[in-house]
């Protein structure tokens, strides 16, 4: 990004780059899991409603806002927002558009690096002799620093740095580099996705085995597309749907503003926004729903999927499932699946570098290479703690505060700015300027009333969860450093107790009554099944269990004594790093303001 006249090479390249920004790991890993955890087909209804009343309006807002700011030579949210309203505050609201991207990229590239590693292991044949438990354990070993699955010391760090270097190198080539990757990556992603989706559609009962005799891929598809209407009254389902729309469309981040800032004044934003949005939805709803869940249900059964759904499920199960296709096909399937995830990831992470680069070029005349490599360095500093302390929860803290809360806050404020301060009359004219399609008038009123109200509701409804996070309500071991370790909750309410099943010098196993969801085919509904579950705790030298077999344990009872460094210590470090990054970017924006004032470009 070395010149102010830089622009997109073609409309196709722009749409593919924008689609690449939106089409990411969330389409294939997060969407099917969110659907499973929130009522299957019932999730699709609020999801599509949120896409219409929140997703599309936000796409219109961000595309038109970005193009508007670009006309004034601004290519990043601080001064894009500053052009739209009087007052110093808006440039600092725009800080979120840089902060979120750097913070998310720092851990998002870690997930990307998993896909690089798994492509390598698929080709190498690492998974060929492993059973399901061993492959699930492989993922845990890989994310545990100090353990190596290849003989490469600190393997997770090596792949993470390689991934970040690749991103930085491509970014240093400017828009042309991003556009080139999008033109190659998105078509390959669609081809890989189609191949695996066809397999998901045609698997049926072919994957059933003696261990999982009821395995049926169609059960997974039916569950995803058959609404459980009782879930529609649950606010959590609607919040999950709204969150997925944010995650999948990459709205509320600042990347769309940055990409759109390189459009020409009369370039269409309406059709481009709709095209990129619907391409993302096709990939997510069609391809995303036809791969992980049907294939997993086809070999392991729907009940297993319901009980084990999670972001890492694809890494813990898919290599095993591919082995059932034969040695040669397993290699190709591994390349297709993890290659698909890699292309989905890198087209999104590349977008995350552009707001920082655009701002530093606009305000401090930095070259594209300097901007790219500085972005890579900051992302590395921020990201290494998520790699080193992945098991301690730092990754999850980044994902919650930067990848969720920050998006909602920024999206709500930019919508208020666009609709009520910049003004819906000017905003609507901006959306329609040069448009190749006629935008239905009801979107004007959605943007003015419904979208800000919905975003405000999502934000307010999330406040209790934010407060619980800050108070560390998810753990009974709240001290950074402690002399005792306490039993955690056995259920979300903390009402259940457990019984000590076995004890060694470094291990405790507790049993308790739990419930799991199973799918009743005859009644076509989810049911709760009670079963005996187990919770285990491992301890290090100098940490001694103080319980006996048969003892009843309640949450917050002391179960071990010694010297403990609890996870809240590492989570607090993660939170402090995020705060430091936010303050650092705010300081950079302030320095840019001082520079502009000295140059006579602002008056205040």
From TrEMBL:
This is Sodium:calcium symporter. One of its GO terms (cellular component) is membrane. It holds the Pfam family SNF. It is a multi-pass membrane protein. The chain crosses the membrane at residues 12-29, 41-61, 89-108, 152-172, 184-202, 237-262, 282-302, 329-351, 372-394, 400-422, 442-463, 573-594. The lineage of its organism: Bacteria, Pseudomonadati, Bacteroidota, Flavobacteriia, Flavobacteriales. Signal peptide: none annotated. Keywords: Membrane, Transmembrane, Transmembrane helix, Transport. It is found in: Membrane. SUPFAM superfamilies: SNF-like.
């Amino acid at each position: 990004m070395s010149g102010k006249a830089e622009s997109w090479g073609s409309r196709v390249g722009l749409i593919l780059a924008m689609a690449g920004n939106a089409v990411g790991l969330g389409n294939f890993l997060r969407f099917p899991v969110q659907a499973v955890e929130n009522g299957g087909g019932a999730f699709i209804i609020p999801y599509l409603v949120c896409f219409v009343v929140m997703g599309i309006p936000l796409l219109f807002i961000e595309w038109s806002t970005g193009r508007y700011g670009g006309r004034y030579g601004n290519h990043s949210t601080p001064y894009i927002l500053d052009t739209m309203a009087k007052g110093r505050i808006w440039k600092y609201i725009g800080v979120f558009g840089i902060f979120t991207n750097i913070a998310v990229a720092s851990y998002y590239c870690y997930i990307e690096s998993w896909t690089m590693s798994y492509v390598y292991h698929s080709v190498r044949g690492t998974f060929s002799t492993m059973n399901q438990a061993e492959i699930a354990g492989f993922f845990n070993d890989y994310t545990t620093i100090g353990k190596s699955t290849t003989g490469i010391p600190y393997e997770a760090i090596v792949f993470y740095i390689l991934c970040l270097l690749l991103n930085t190198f491509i970014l240093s080539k400017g828009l042309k580099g991003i556009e080139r990757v999008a033109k190659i990556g998105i078509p390959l992603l669609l081809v890989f996705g189609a191949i695996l989706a066809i397999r998901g559609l045609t698997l049926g009962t072919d994957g059933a085995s003696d261990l999982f005799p009821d395995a049926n891929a169609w059960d997974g598809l039916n569950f995803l597309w058959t609404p459980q209407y009782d879930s529609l009254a649950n606010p959590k389902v609607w919040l999950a749907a709204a969150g997925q729309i944010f995650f999948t469309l990459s709205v509320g981040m600042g990347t769309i503003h940055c990409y759109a800032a390189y459009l020409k004044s009369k370039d269409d934003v309406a059709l481009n926004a709709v095209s990129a949005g619907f391409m993302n939805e096709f990939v997510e709803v069609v391809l995303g729903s036809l791969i992980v869940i049907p294939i997993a249900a086809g070999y392991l059964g729907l009940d297993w999927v319901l009980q084990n759904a999670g972001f890492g499920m694809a890494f813990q199960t898919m290599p095993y499932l591919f082995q059932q296709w034969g040695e040669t096909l397993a290699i190709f399937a591994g390349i297709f699946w993890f290659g698909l995830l890699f292309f989905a990831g890198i087209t999104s992470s590349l977008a995350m570098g552009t707001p920082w680069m655009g701002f530093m070029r606009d305000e401090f005349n930095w070259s594209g290479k300097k901007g790219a490599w500085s972005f890579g360095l900051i992302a590395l500093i921020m990201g290494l703690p998520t790699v080193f302390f992945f098991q301690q929860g730092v990754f999850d803290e980044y994902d919650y505060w930067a990848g969720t809360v920050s998006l909602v806050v920024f999206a709500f404020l930019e919508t208020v700015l666009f609709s009520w301060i910049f003004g819906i009359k000017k905003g609507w004219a901006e959306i329609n300027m040069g448009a190749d399609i006629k935008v239905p008038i009801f979107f004007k009123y959605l943007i003015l009333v419904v979208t800000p109200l919905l975003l405000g509701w999502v934000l307010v409804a999330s406040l209790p969860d934010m407060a619980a996070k800050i108070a560390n309500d998810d753990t009974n071991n709240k001290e950074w450093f402690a002399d005792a370790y306490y039993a955690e909750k056995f259920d979300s309410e903390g009402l259940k107790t457990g019984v000590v099943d076995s004890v060694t010098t470094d291990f405790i196993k507790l049993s308790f009554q739990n419930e799991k969801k199973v799918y009743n085919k005859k009644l076509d509904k989810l049911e709760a099944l009670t079963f005996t579950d187990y919770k285990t705790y491992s301890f290090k030298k100098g940490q001694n269990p103080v319980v006996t077999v048969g003892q009843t344990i309640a949450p917050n009872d002391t179960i071990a004594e010694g010297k403990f460094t609890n996870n809240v210590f590492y989570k607090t470090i993660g939170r402090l790093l995020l705060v430091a990054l936010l303050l650092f970017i705010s300081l950079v924006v302030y320095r840019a303001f001082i520079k502009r004032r000295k140059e006579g470009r602002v008056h205040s």
